[in-house]
Batch of 2 targets.
Target 1
Amino acid sequence: MTAPLSTRQIWVMPAILALVSALGLISALLGDGIWDVLSWLALAVPVIVIVWYSLWAFLIRGSS
Amino acid sequence: MRKAAGFRRWYLVHKWTSLICTVFLLLLCLTGLPLIFRDEIALWLGDLAEPPEQTVASPDASVDSLVEAARARRPGEFIKFLIREPDVPVWVLSLGLAASASENSSAFLFDAHSGQLLRELPVRQGILYVLLKLHVDLFQGLPGTLFLGVMGLLFVISTVSGVVVYGPFMRKLPFGAIRREGTTRLAWLDVHNLLGIVTVVWVLVVGGTGVINTLARPLLAVWQRTELVQMTAPWRGRPDPAAIVSAQSALDVARSAEPNREVRLVAFPGTSFAGKHHYTIFMRGKTNVTQRLFKPVLVEAASGQLTGSRDLPWYLTLLLLSRPLHFGDYGGLPLKALWTVLDLIAIVVLLSGLYLWWKKRMLSGEQLQVESDLIQSGKSVSGQEMRA
């Protein structure tokens, strides 16, 4: 049985993703050009994270 | 023991708020998907048109010619609004069976530069109209909107409670892990938790701004009954004006009063935004944030004189800023594409949540014990959780 994770270990990734998402939502509201690009990059991060872990579980590790 | 009781309570909150609102949230997410591309679809269907490019820069055509053209085509109807689109140089002119009517009887699209009529717009028909009505009020008017607002509120509570119960579920599982060595249900639990926690800020913003948007009509009614009534108080009880100045002259007065703003919407006398004695011209700012915020300028219809203007109250500012954050239309096509993907992910979270609930009802006690061992989310918690 593995040791239980600390609160920090459980929440560090969700917290980072929450911050990046919030910045992504606000950025394009503040201006055009670079502000839009920052939004696109920031909001793409949660999508990429999900795609990454889904591919990892369903393709790379193979079926059970 | 206290920790387990707290967890159980939050888990029940999550389960029950989700169960009540999920069907409606699925409808909102599904109808919302094409609505993200509302303008693009409208252009494609011909409901919106881009006017021909101006070769020589010249001042805009007078809106009076637009008013005349509309009146010629619809002599029995009343002009309600002239709406200037921010990105495309067009005016939308809407008419109603009465000036105070809430529904449009007809609408016309005009080229702002040349004043030419581009097309008549479909009213209360078409696929976009159906999608929008389903999304906004299930075709039930204000009660439908408020009902969806309650569903949205339950959804927000469901999401927050989901975040609270995420912690115990992840005690022994590294971030992003999806366990495929156990039951199918366990794998979907991990998918539900991962997709949910990763997109939680977007979901809360879109969901929360959705709830705020359901209050649009009540908030506008508050504005009419407080601010507008105060601004038009000297005219109350007077008979309707016999003759009114033209819309273009009212526009000119508003523009000179607010030279740093641009016209967004002209409410004609008789509409509920203007009252019987005034034109109300809503003017937007020029920066990215202020272009969403409108300042109403009142011009007396009989004399053409400026009556006054006031900044929007905080609740209308909140409402107007909720619009872009809900629609995702403020960052170009790439933002709309990301909005679409995040919407699809939300649909997976909703559907997997339903599946998890349904499967749990179907599982035998022995299967639940096996799953409970696999979850190992902390000794004091797992036993309680499984019996929920």
Target 2
Amino acid sequence: MFGNLMKKKFTIILVTMFCVLSFCATAMAESIPYETYTYWQYDDSKKVVSMKSCFDYVKTIYGSSLGIEAFKNPSGLYVKNGKIYVSDTENNRIVEIHSGGTLSRVITECYSETQALSLKEPGEVFVTDTGDIFICDTGNARVIVCDDNLQIKKIIEKPESDIIPEGFEFKPISVLVDSRGYIYVLSDGCYYGALLFDKNYEFDCFYGANDTEGSVLDAFNKIKDLIFGSNEKKSASVRTLPYQFADFAINNDFIYTVTRNTKYLSNASTGQIRKLNSGGSNILRSIKNGKLVTSNSYKFQDEGYYTGEINSAIIIKDLPTDFISMSVDSDGYIYALDYSTGKIFVYDSNCNYMTIFGGGIGFGVQDGTFVTPVSISVDGEKIYVLDQMNLSVTVFEKNDFGEMYFGAQKLTLNGEHNEAREVWRNVLKEDANIQLSYTGIAQAYYAEEDYESACEFAQLGNNQDLYAKALQETRNGQISKLFKNLVPVLAVLIVVIYILYRKVFKGKIRLKMNKKVKIALGSLLHPFINFERIKYSNEGSVMIASVILAIYFVSSVLRHTCTAFSFQVFDAEEYSVMMTLVSSLGIVILWCVVNWLICTLMSGKGTFKQIFIATSYCMMPLIVKEFLYVALSYVLVPSQQMVLTLIEAFCLIYALFMICVSFMKIHEYNFFQFFKSVVVCILGMILLVFIIFLLLTLAQQSYSFLSVIFNEIFNRR
Amino acid sequence: MKKYFLLIISLLLLGSAVGCEQKDSGDLNFEQLDNHIISSDVLAENDSFSLYWDSENKCVLFKEKTTGYIWSSVPQSYYESGAHGGRASVVMESPIIIEYIDPETGLTAEAFAYTSVYANGSISTQVIEDGIEVIYGFDDYEISIPVQYTLQEDSLRVSIEPKEITTGKFDLYSISVSPYMCSIMNNASEDSYLFVPSGSGALIYSDERAEGKRVYSEEVYGRDYSREVKFDTTNEKKINLPVFGVKNDDRGIIGVIDSGDGQALIEAEAGDKDVGYSSVYVTYFYKGHDAVEITASNEGKSLSKKQADGFADNSLMSVTYYPLEKGKSSYVDMAHKYYEVVSTDNEKASIETVTANIDFYGGIEVYKNFLGVSYDTLTALTSFDDVSNIIQEIAEQTDTPISANLVGFGKDGVSKKLAADGIGVAKVYGDSQDLQNLIKKCQDSGITLYRDFDIANYSKTSNGVSTKWNSAKNVLGTRAYQYIIDPYLRSEQDGEVYYLVTHEKVLSLFDKVVSRVKKDNISGVSLSSFADITYSDYTENVGYARADIKNMTSQILNTAKENNLSVMLSNANGYAAIASDIICNTPLSSSKQNIFDKEVPFYQIAFHGCTVMTGESLNTSDDMQKTFLKCMDTGISLQFSVIEKYTKEAGFNTDYDFYAMKYDECKEDMISYINESKEFLNRVYDSKIVARTEIENGVYKTDYSNGISIIVNYKDTSVTTVYGEIGAEDYIIVKEEGQ
């Protein structure tokens, strides 16, 4: 207990020291010449914000700066305890570099008792805590295990096993070893996952293969081909294979894998990063709508696509974030290297974006940018990136702000909220754009049972879940207060009103209401009678129907814009009133038009006017639903969502019931005829929407065609 | 109906046919030259220099009489080394290298004088006053270029009159002039280097590296904003000053691009083993140009280079080389020489000290919503009252001269919607009385108050500047669209565009600005964007019009002076910096290209003591202490950026670092840094920097002409020097006796 307390205090002192010293003892490192940013995440949305840089560019190491021949097509990088291992593939060597950037040694061969084995096109290296070096000797299809003096202990070659498929080519490109001595080998072109060897170097199994993705349509096609397909077609059918890992890393015996998302080869746009347990299952979790869910559906990438250029002549568009390599530090922060842009994405263990920096997009001529980044490795506070085209290793180091920020999040993730709060305050002082700092402070207040402050900061950090939890706690107190004070006051008020009504006005107050308004409102409670009067006595009003539709539209807008924060984060910039217009009034109008067209053919007796009036009147329960939802969102908390769902369901069913009654009356249908007409109407609506889209697309294409002709003529002047 | 249809089709076909024509017939004026080479002789001379023509090697020699040292487009040591032949001869013995546009592909290719003129072309020479004109005929490409070499009082001028260039089948794209005039042998000592003015300035060593040669190329004054840019992969500091140079042990030479700087590139090549020399030189674009998408497919788009038609107003391409005094050839001496050259007509009487400048950011436009309808509305981040209170607090606690600049206090906040920010002030910041109170408070406290106007960019018609009629045109003759590049994805994302005010309209717009500032009784005007960006305007078919910007700037500064207004410019280009009262946001670093070996504060050294300068904003920099040290190192004032109220919407704004500007969060640092620096800055503000030496890696000593020196330790460990121990990331000030 005392030990834990001391540890906590030590952490606080350390982090506080960073805060205090942030302006007086920064490392001698250059600031980086590109944007550093992160994302705010909320309500399934991501919003990009600038932020202070967390990592400084330190230096670039070239072969020439080490006094040796330049690197040639280097492909792998591994760093441990300050020692950098560059797999200089085409030079058939591993270059070992001291942390200061000076040459330690060049490894071109390893030694057995009888002979020296030369390396051929080596892949990545791994060094165990005991100092054993595992070298992927890719060109020789083997993994060499040797000690620090390069004396060979074991050579791992293609295993003999029934599990290994026929024709399998063993091309080890990366290797990891866990604390139990289990060896994970990544073989180029292997879709079955990593090859797992036990501590006796015996092949065990394939480990952690990616899942294949398939849609219902794929399954349907497959079944169809199986049943009806010819033999030629069956043999020519493409097998869906899982994407192979691009790279993997290890932390606390958990294996982290990364899968590429290139424009042309694969399209793994979600779940690119995984954390595998010993069974090979993904246990990396991200927070979605306040709940921890597996990272399989999480988009580890920028919101948008990049544009690149080749030789100043060809523009490549729509390049996605494409992680080619990854590393994990001792605190569990995940560092992923984007091949498309040369950016480094850093995530915490809950997949929150910590920071994104770097760049170059294939033109990295500036310090800290890249042309062809292929490998990343993290060692302590330093990040190392290998640039294959620039033939260099770039070193970044976490700066004081980065220390403070990452330290604060670590405290929060460890549940040390109180200790984290002051650090977060200091983070905010330097950078008010850090969403995690608002959440961290809110969590600290929540843990301290200061729910109002928790609500305030949760709202500042757009954290609905935490806000709702804190709000619920606040409400518990408020409701008991409410019952204590408000209920007696309300009771007295009701009695006073009743007495006034009965004694003073003697029950003579009567609302004078227009007959048509009465019919409209009455249709809500007595649909049979009132829709009959609309049909036969012509007592419906187009104006009232229009007003109801307008109110329906307004209520829909209010639902989107005025719902309480705990249920919805409203973004004025993103919100489109046109969408609401289409989804409310648009559908009603479409329904009226199609219903009129269809029912004319199906012996319906209703006129367009009657259809419009009836449909509009039927929207009244939905208006009630929207207003109630907005009002109750301020009273209830998300855990009481069920109440809102029930109200919504009731109103919707009632509206459907009204539609049923009204259209049976108006068209003089029985229920079966009504049902038939509705089905046909829905199909008609789909068809009409399709035609509208077709026309719009045609118009757009025509416009593009004409503009291309115009530009061609104009630009060729 | 059918007739009209046929008529339209005929017109379209006619247009296409005309469009397919490769070149304007007016350009087809190339005539092959008669080879005529005069014999070697002295062409001109004065007390210090003489100019020779070497007919054997077909190059001009520029000789220092006192020492006998020769500068030439072909380095003398190259001839003496006897290492001729191969690529070295092709590159080094070419006093001119051109790029032409292949009419078939639309792409550019290089041609060297050595192969395309001497071997397969023609050359003609004629003596002119104080020099020689050499016409290089690239016959294979039907291009001839007359270059004049003339001896000046203390320099050699190399110039090309664009009107005299003749072209035929091929279009000329660019001309590199005397590429090895400023050169050093590879693997020269560390005391020899190439200087390029990227950002604050940078040095390139000539060592040959295993990775191969290093190449540098940047446009003077940054990119031409009239060109269409939909993506931008880098975040570079531009070249602000049209100068470059080389130091070769105790000798040095600088090249000052005195004309045609708006269409120039500064290029350098270092460590080329095949050539054996490293050099820095100027390349001129012949005409305005842009890349045009000519084909489209799903996978990519081809680009072609399009040049502007006609160049009636094209300015002379001229670079003047100034040899430096022997033993005084460092980048500090280059900076002094540069200032001496450019300041001849603009000498200032005196300057006033300012310890710090504070940019106050007014407001941003945020989306609001009424019944689902989103609309923009201006929200104040700082009001006039806030500025008053902050200024008062800082003035009371620092007691030193400062200046304040109101940025984004117009009708559109910091957005680029309205030309000159709508000129008037928006009411969300306070009423006119509040503004007058602020002005009075500034006057009482001795604070110079500026108001910033963006007179270059806009996206909505306002104040008589129409988006249709008053926006600058690009090389294609269409409106020069400025796409908003997403700073994170580095490409245009949402299709939003803004425009550039035509050169013609800028002056009248500035007149309105002056009237408003005078009316409000504000003491100075700040033009943050105008001196920072330069752009062509092909509205009147004037050809490459970026050169106009110099004249416009001169007129603008004169107008301000006539109205007794101080002028503040931000990150100003050389032509503007020389005449401004205060230059803010001067670059503290280079563009950090990996070819650079060292960054140097050339910009600050050149103008120090002549103009008040501030560095980059401390509180928004990645490392506040380091930015502070850089300001102290070069004796320039501090810069801060401040808002009173931070909102989430401000945080989401991608154009400004509002997240680090909240006054309450940074005021302690601001006051502390101002107090720490005020004594030193107030003593050196009007002194020249006479020397700057690197005592050891990361420790620099800067000497001022008044005898004060500062030694700055950028390292994270303390160091011991002969001047005493200096703490990590700290400095000491050393004064001569009597100071």
